[in-house]
Structure formats: C-alpha cells, structure tokens
C-alpha cells in the first residue's frame, strides 16, 4: 500500500478570505473572535479538500507566517513585542507588522521583524531574532488547539514543525554570536514539544529541515547529528522533510539521522533517489515528492508512474508519495479561473488539482493503472495537446534564437568610449538627477484603469487620460529641475504584467493568488509559450512624453530576468532558453525606442538576485545566462544611446562582478537604508560604469533632508569617482503620494546642486 500525504496547503483561501479578514482586523473592523473563526473555517475547508489523503498536515496554517509561528512556539519573542494587558495575538502581529509611534499606548513605536525570502521562493518569512542570551520556553497552545481541532475531524493528521537546525539557520543574531551556540538551549524545548505531542496521541510528526538542500559546513552537519540524536528517544514517529533541491553532500547525513522517514523533492532531486534508497536504513519510510509544488503545470502522470512503479516494487509499504513541497507556493483552485484561455487552462493544475493527481498516482500504484485508465488518458491527452499546440512553439522565435548562436551580446564599444559620445549628446551636469520610473499611482489612476478594464471607459478616453497624466508628470519634473525625466508609468499596474499582456506566450489568471508575505499576495503570470512581441509596447507613451520636454526622456522597460523570475515559467525547456526569448522581445522594444529618438533607456532587473540558486556552486551558471540575456536585450543600440538598469536588492556585493558585466551605462541601486555601507564593495572592486546609489528611501514616508542626501552622496564619492555618480531615489515612487514626492525630490535636486558646488560642475 502506498501512503499519500501533503506537506502543507495554501492558507490564504480560494477568495483570499484570510487576507481580507486580517486586513479588516488590523483596521479595527473585525474582532479577534471573528478573525479566528475565519481561520478555523478555512482550516476546515482545507481539511475537507485534503481528506482523500492518508495523512494531512496540521499546523501548516498560519495567520501570518509559519516561521514566526515557530518562533512563538519556542518562546522566542522579542522584548519589544511584549506588553502587558493585551492578548497573545497582539504581540504576534506586533512582531509581524511593527507598530508606528503613537499607534497605541506606547509612544516610541515598535519596528517590525525583518522579513526575507524563504529559500528560493517568492514567499517571505519573519527572521527569528536571536542573541547570545536568547532563552526559549515552550508555548504550545496555538499548535495544540489546531491538533485538537484536527482530532475532532477524525482523519489521520500529522503536525508540521520547522526543525531546530533550519529554524536557527533562518534566524539572525543581533550581537553577531554564532547561532549554533543556542542549540543546547533549544533542544530541551523541542524535547518537551515532542513529549507533548505524544501525550496528545500524535502518531506522526513532520519536521521540515529544508536547509539540508543547501551547502552546510561540517559544524552544521555535526549539529544535525547531535540534535537529532538528542531528540531520538521522545515523541511520535517523525518524517524529516527536505525540499527545493537535492541533498548533495548532506545525503548521507540526512539518511543517517535517527528519524522514521525522509522526504525528498523528486522534482529537483530525482537523480538522488537511488542513492537515498541504498543509504536509508530499511526500517525508514521514504516519501517522494513527485508533483511539483512550485509550478502550475499538470504532472505527466504516466511518466511519474514509470518512475514510481519499480520503486514501489522495491520499497513496498515504505513508499509514501506527496507533492514536492508545501502547496503554499501555488494558487488554490483552477476551477475559479472561469475566464482563462480554455486551451491553456487544460494544461494547468493548482493546489486542488495537484491533490487529484496525487490521488490518481496512489490508486494506480495500489490497484494498477487500469483502475485509473480514464484519468491517465485524459492527462496524457492534455499533455499531448500542450506539446503539439501552435501556441507553444513559434518557428520564427526559434529561428531567431538559433541565429543568435553564442553571441555574448556586447555593446559596440567599451563603456569609456560610449560615455564620451553620451556626454557630447546629453551635456548633463555632474551629479545628474533622475528617478527610477514610476510616479504616484493615485486613486484616480487606479479608478480609470479599472474602468477601462471593465469596459466602462473606452480606449480613446483612457489613452487621453494617460496622456494627460504623462504631461502632468513631465511638467512636475521640469518644475523640480530634474535632469533626466521619466513618463511616470501611469499606464502600468505591474511591471511584469504590463509587458506580459502585450507579449504572445503569456497568460493571466483572475484568482491565481499566491501568498508573498502576511496578507500580501501576488498573481504571477503564466509563461506558457515562445515569447513573441507582435508590436511596440511602450513607444507611443514615451514618444509623447519626449515631445513635451527638451530634457532627455528615459524609456522604461522590464528586463528579461525579472520577467522570468516573477512568472510561473514553462517547464518544457530550460529557463535560460525562455529568458533569451524574453530578451529578444525586449531588445526589439529597445530598438524601437531608439528609432523613435529616445536616447536613454532603462531596463529594470529588480528580481535578478532572486533567481540565484540555493547552492552557491550553481550561482555562476545562472549568472552567466541571466547576465547574457540582459545584455542581449540591451546591446543592439548605438554608442550614444545610454542604457540604464535598476536593481532593488541591496545585497549585491557577492555578485558585483556579474553586475559590472551587465555593462549598463548607468545602474541605480537601493542603498539609502544601509547608509551607503553597501558601497564598501567598491573599495576593492573598481566598478567601471556610472552608478546612482539611491539617496531617498522611498519605502518610508519620511522626507529626506538636503543635508542627509548630500552626506550620503559624499560617502559614495569616497568610493566612486564623482564624475560617475548619479543622484536618484532608491526605487520607483508609485506607492508614495505627490505631497511626499514633491518636497523629497526638491530636496534631492537641491542636494545635487550643492554637490556640484562642492565638486565643481564639470560636465559628466
Ligand atoms: N521602474 C520601476 C518603478 O519605478 C522599478 C520598480 C522596481 O524596481 N521594483 O516602479
Ligand atoms: Zn526598485
């Protein structure tokens, strides 16, 4: 008999019920009981959906974040969140979201816990805050309540917790002390938890240790052995779950830990299955994650059965099957997508459909393929249709790609030469000022867009509105005295969706929401086919903007790597090939902009860093193709056309060479919050091109002073020659209000003026 289970289910709800309940609660419109009731209803619904499985997870549900839940379970709560007089949920949300000064009885405000990406996904967790004197104590009530709820449902369940090593690894010490030194203090709390679970009658426990798919040094490997040995004699049977990658050097370690089962992500570590079976002691179960929990494509059930059947022969009852990881990373239910293109729709599976697939695989293993013949046939037909579809393969795109050969995508001349031509053309002052692209997305802009999308406003009226917005934005910038202007991006709601909607090969869902953090969800577009640009996407808007001013107008595009990293990407060819197709489409747009007389073009690569593989050993390969794709998109222009790029993520020191290799004439980056410390890397590394280290933190409503921005730029000028510096905000201004943006940019322009006085105003 094959056992089926899941590692976790999306908790946000088919209609994003959890999001809306949370936000109402935070606004004071929904009392705590009602919020908790919504959460309980969602859990009940998700349990019903998962009831065909042998084991369903419990405790994977979270009101905000599963890592924060684990921190609370371990009694690791920052002091600033503890306040007498309010309930445990208040402290929880205080850490999750922070509290502005004056928001409640406290006057100083509480800053939110730091948030960062959960492995290589787009989910963000709250970083556990640790220090040498962290102490832990078990706070099991919230988990026990979910367990009691699950017991009442009378269906086998397994609680889910994050293992001690992964939890520590995700944490940060505020005093720089080594996290592993806390392990001896942490383990007694885990022991106590395991004992409590046994007392509750729990039979199986899922312990997530995804850190086992990263490169661990021997200290961490040794800590794994010690920790799991120390926990071996208490608690329920446990399955150690790994996901998002292969075990690599940790394979023997993972197989030798004293637990009762191991879960392997077969979508990414299939090549290790044989080695794991050979190494894993025979009394352990092996769970294979054969359905991709990170993507939305139908599984090739026949191919998976070809793979599983011999393993089933070998393992018998020891074989469990599951999705590769928690289904948190995919949308809930394809059935909600009533407006999706019918052809594309039949190629997809969201969380609910993935459970059907799992069920079908289990039936086939238990009773033979004949028992599910109809389902297998339907699945095979859908996949064959996808493979044969003219929408997936476009011969013209393929030819262009082939013609590219291994062209590295270099500009015609080196940067120094281009810079000279560009100086002659634009005659900008030193410390030129610019912005990152978007200006405030006012309620009026959103309303007009909604009206247009819903057909209440016709194309002509909408275009007239956007043109007027552009004109307003240009005139504001002229009044402010900025040097290189932008059109303001009023026509875009999202930097990927705007382009995706104009490209062939992309589909969009209505309800395909995936949790990004807390109540925040994203709706990644689906990149299903060869990418083709039928016509210009931005040229009319930018040409209009340029016609309104004598200053250079920056054309604004999203780069191929960011398009890729923020989409659900087709799984039938390497990501690098898909990225190159995107690069060719963007390159066409770049050339059209150039032909329309636009001299400065920015290609945003906000998500470049996000695509880095989990293992450092694999970084270079990714960077090689990603950076090349960027260059291919940008390189076809003349020397006197200035290419800018923008990257949000502040930590780029470790990939600085790759960034330099993008060879953008100007790069703007996020630095203001780190006090320019990020620029330390430029002391050892001679960055060759121009750079705009953001001096205005657009994530904050504060209006930066002239002095603060001058001071930041002076710090930058100590590391980068003044003639290569630009003055700009950290990121786009779309989330801010005009009342904030106007004075902030006025100060920024004044700061540039003072800098020119200090440094002399030789033309950059
Ligand atoms: N050009 C985009 C904007 O200004 C860049 C956004 C981003 O980097 N995330 O909004
Ligand atoms: Zn940005």
Number of strands: 22
Number of helical runs? 27
Ions and ligands:
glutamine, zinc ion
Neighbour order of strands in the largest sheet: 1-12-11-10-9-8-6-2
The portion of residues forming beta strands comes to 5-15%
Category from helices, strands and their pairing:
alpha/beta
Shape: globular
The percentage helix is 40-55%
Poorly predicted sequence stretches spanning 5 or more consecutive residues: 100-108
CA gyration radius, whole angstroms: 27 Å
The protein's oligomeric status is: single chain
The overall pLDDT average reads 95
The main sheet comes to: 8 strands, parallel
N- to C-terminal distance:
73 Å
Topology record:
Elements: E1 3-4, H1 17-26, H2 32-49, E2 56-58, H3 66-73, H4 88-97, E3 115-117, E4 124-126, E5 129-130, H5 141-153, E6 157-162, H6 164-170, E7 172-173, H7 183-199, E8 204-208, H8 218-230, E9 237-241, H9 251-256, E10 261-265, H10 273-279, E11 285-291, H11 301-315, E12 319-323, H12 342-345, H13 351-367, H14 373-388, H15 395-404, H16 415-426, H17 443-453, H18 459-480, H19 497-500, E13 504-507, E14 514-517, E15 520-522, E16 526-532, H20 539-547, E17 554-558, H21 560-565, E18 568-569, H22 575-595, E19 600-604, H23 619-634, E20 642-647, H24 656-662, E21 666-669, H25 681-684, E22 690-693, H26 706-717, H27 738-759
Parallel strand pairs: 1-12, 2-6, 5-7, 6-8, 8-9, 9-10, 10-11, 11-12, 16-18, 17-19, 19-20, 20-21, 21-22
Antiparallel strand pairs: 3-4, 13-16, 14-15
Helix pairs in contact: 1-2, 11-13, 17-18, 22-23, 23-24, 26-27
Bound molecules: glutamine and zinc ion.
């Amino acid at each position: 008999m094959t056992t089926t289970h899941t590692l976790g289910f999306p908790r946000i709800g088919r209609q994003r019920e959890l999001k809306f309940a949370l936000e109402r609660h935070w606004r004071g419109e929904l009392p705590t009981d009602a919020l908790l009731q919504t959460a309980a209803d969602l859990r009940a619904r998700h349990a019903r959906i998962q009831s065909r499985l042998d084991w369903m997870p419990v405790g994977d549900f979270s009101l905000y974040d599963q890592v924060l839940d684990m921190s609370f379970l371990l009694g690791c709560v920052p002091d600033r969140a503890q306040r007498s007089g309010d309930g445990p949920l208040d402290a929880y949300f205080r850490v999750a979201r922070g509290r502005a000064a004056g928001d409640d009885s406290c006057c100083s405000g509480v800053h939110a816990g730091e948030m960062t990406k959960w492995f290589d996904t787009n989910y963000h967790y709250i970083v556990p805050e640790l220090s040498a004197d962290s102490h832990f104590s078990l706070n099991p009530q919230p988990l026990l309540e979910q367990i009691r709820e699950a017991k009442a449902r009378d269906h086998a369940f397994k609680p889910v917790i994050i293992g001690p090593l992964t939890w520590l690894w995700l944490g940060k010490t505020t005093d720089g002390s080594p996290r592993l030194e806390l392990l001896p203090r942490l383990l007694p709390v885990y022991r106590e938890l395991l004992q409590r679970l046994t007392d509750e009658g729990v039979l199986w426990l899922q312990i997530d240790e995804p850190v086992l798919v990263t490169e661990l040094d021997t200290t961490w490997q040794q800590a794994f052995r010690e920790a799991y040995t120390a926990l071996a004699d208490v608690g329920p049977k446990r399955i150690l779950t790994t996901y998002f990658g292969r075990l690599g050097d940790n394979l023997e370690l993972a197989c030798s830990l004293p637990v009762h089962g191991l879960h392997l992500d077969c979508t990414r570590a299939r090549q290790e299955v044989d080695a794991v079976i050979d190494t894993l002691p025979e009394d352990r179960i092996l769970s294979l994650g054969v359905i991709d929990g990170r993507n939305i494509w139908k599984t090739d059930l026949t191919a998976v059965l070809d793979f599983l059947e011999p393993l089933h022969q070998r393992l018998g009852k020891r074989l469990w099957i599951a999705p590769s990881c928690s289904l948190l990373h995919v949308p809930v239910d394809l059935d909600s997508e009533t407006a999706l293109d019918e052809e594309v729709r039949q190629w997809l599976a969201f969380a609910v459909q993935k459970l059907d697939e799992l069920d079908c695989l289990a039936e086939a293993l238990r009773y033979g393929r004949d028992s599910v013949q109809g389902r297998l046939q339907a699945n095979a037909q859908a996949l064959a249709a996808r493979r044969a579809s003219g929408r997936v393969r476009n011969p013209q795109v393929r030819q262009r790609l082939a013609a590219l050969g291994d062209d590295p995508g270099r500009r015609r001349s080196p940067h120094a030469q281009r810079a000279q031509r560009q100086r002659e053309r634009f005659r900008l002052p030193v410390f030129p000022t610019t912005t990152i692209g978007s200006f405030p997305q006012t309620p009026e802009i959103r309303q007009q867009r909604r009206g247009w999308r819903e057909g209440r406003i016709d194309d002509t009226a909408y275009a007239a509105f956007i043109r007027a917005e552009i004109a307003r934005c240009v005139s504001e910038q002229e009044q402010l005295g900025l040097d290189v202007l932008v059109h303001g991006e009023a026509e875009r709601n999202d930097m990927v969706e705007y382009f995706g909607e104009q490209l062939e090969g992309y589909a969009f869902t209505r309800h395909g929401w995936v949790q990004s953090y807390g109540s925040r969800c994203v709706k990644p577009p689906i990149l299903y086919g060869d990418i083709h640009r039928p016509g210009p996407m931005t040229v009319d808007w930018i040409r209009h903007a340029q016609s309104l001013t004598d200053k250079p107008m920056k054309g604004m595009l999203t780069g191929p790597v960011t398009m890729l990293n923020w989409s659900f990407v087709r799984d039938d060819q390497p990501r690098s090939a898909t990225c190159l197709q995107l690069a060719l489409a963007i390159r066409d747009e770049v050339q059209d902009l150039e032909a329309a007389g636009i001299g400065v073009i920015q290609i945003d690569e906000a998500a470049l860093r996000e695509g880095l593989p989990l293992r450092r050993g694999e970084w270079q390969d990714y960077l090689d193709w990603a950076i090349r794709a960027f260059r291919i998109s940008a390189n076809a222009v003349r020397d006197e056309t200035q290419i800018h790029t923008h990257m949000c993520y502040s930590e780029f020191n470790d990939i600085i060479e790759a960034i330099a290799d993008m060879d953008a004439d100007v790069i703007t980056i996020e630095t203001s919050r780190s006090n320019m410390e990020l620029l330390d890397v430029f002391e050892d590394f001679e960055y060759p091109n121009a750079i705009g280290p953001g001096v205005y933190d657009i994530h904050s409503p504060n209006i930066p002073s002239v002095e603060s921005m001058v001071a930041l730029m002076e710090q930058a000028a100590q590391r980068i020659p003044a003639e290569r510096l630009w003055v700009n905000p950290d990121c786009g201004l779309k989330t801010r209000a005009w009342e904030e943006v106007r004075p902030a940019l006025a100060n920024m322009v004044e700061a540039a003026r003072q800098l020119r006085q200090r440094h002399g105003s030789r033309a950059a």
